[in-house]
UniProtKB/TrEMBL annotation, chain A:
Native species: Fusibacter paucivorans
Annotated signal sequence range: none
Domain of life: Bacteria
Pfam families: B12-binding
Ranges for domain B12-binding: 4-131
Protein known as: Cobalamin B12-binding domain-containing protein
Automatic annotation (TrEMBL), chain B:
NCBIfam families in UniProt: lao
Gene: meaB
Record keywords: Chaperone, GTP-binding, Hydrolase, Nucleotide-binding
Family indicated by similarity: Belongs to the SIMIBI class G3E GTPase family. ArgK/MeaB subfamily.
Protein name in UniProt: Methylmalonyl Co-A mutase-associated GTPase MeaB
Amino acid sequence: MDKLIRVLVAKPGLDGHDRGAKVIARALRDAGMEVIYTGLRQTPEQIVSAAIQEDVDCVALSILSGAHNTLLPKVVELLEAENASDILVIGGGVIPTDDIPFLKEKGVKEIFTPGTPTQTTIDFIKANVAQ
Amino acid sequence: MDIEKRLLAGDKRAAARLISLLENKDQEALAILKRLYPKSGNAYVIGITGPPGAGKSTLTDKLTKALRKEGKTVGIIAVDPTSPFTGGAILGDRVRMNELSTDPGVFIRSMGARGHLGGISEATASAIKVLDIYGLDYIFVETVGVGQSEVDIVKNCDTTLMVMVPGLGDDIQAIKAGVMEIGDVFAVNKSDRDGAKRTAREIDMMLDYNKDALWRPPVKMVVASENQGVDELIKALHEHRDFMKSSDNFIKRRAQNAKNEVVELIKERIERTILDQSKREERLEHAAERIAKREIDPFSVVDDVVGKMNL
Ligand SMILES: Nc1nc2c(ncn2[C@@H]2O[C@H](COP(=O)(O)OP(=O)(O)OP(=O)(O)O)[C@@H](O)[C@H]2O)c(=O)[nH]1
Ligand SMILES: [Mg+2]
């Protein structure tokens, strides 16, 4: 039996809504993935603990708050501390293109800015998860 | 270090990975489970079931926090048997349990129905064993109560908590058939809503039909979202555990569960073998054609297939 891809979808940061996270969660589900949805206002610590317990292949973070430069690298760092750097970390939401090189340098594998077709994200995950 | 040693050393990641491997029917993972089986059996397993949206996850969150205060460690397996058998799923029970995520004494795992051979109950049973060996004191298994699948799932449990809500009315009648019987403890959640007392009374009346049972399931009113009535409910769950453990009920129940499990595993293995063989050879199709033409009868074909089967 083929292994299903498991993805944790979370929305870190303090701002209010999770529409973007829900859109991506549904798109990944429709692409045949098992999505663990954890909802709003997640701390990096909560995200990483959940990712470990759920044994996901990928953590997809939706960020609108502007705190991406601290939150995303923090998730990568905490995963490393748990010996879980094989888990793919990707981000999406309102992230200025100027910040993308910094985030990638910090170990975020890809950033999907608004307007990116969800299929692009799906293809990226399928091509890059450790199998 | 290998995954088996890491699991025994209390490594969360090893436990998490082993559950995935077992979900995917990895033979090495199964061998590990066989070896470590004598180390399982210490966790107390509580099934939590009830209609969609009844507040099962919210209640599980509160029950877990109460047990943590007693110094107990807790595993939670949130199963969605309604997710499609093939394809993807969104598993959202963690949304109600976020505060537990970073508690080192808690382990939460979400499971979908996906293409589990032998069904979701078998995959759940494996996950329970892993968390049991990992060393948790209590394991909650949350599953939505709509039909046969959750009845199968709770066949893995020592105590089953049925979560109801006010105003189910006719639904209670419907649930009664097959599912009412499995509750050892009943909670009427959302008791901040109208009609909670009436619903509790209706459940009580229904339970009174079964007067000769040794254990009369208690019915507790709770408001999970406000953490009201949770201590009372924990007390009721403990009382059921004490009732089980004070007699041979406990071992009898576990033996009954084990019997179900073995039967399910046998069914699965036979099914898989037949499917494998019929895929490998075109024998079955060929035989079917001959049956249609009345050259041979279906009974003899079955004798033939089963006789040659290497289980
Ligand atoms: N009024 C009221 N609402 C509650 C109570 N407990 C939970 N809820 C709400 O009921 C909704 C569903 O709660 P969940 O805990 O997700 O219910 P569930 O049974 O786990 O749902 P599924 O897993 O989807 O079947 C949420 O919006 C909760 O906030 C309660 O005691 N009173
Ligand atoms: Mg739930």
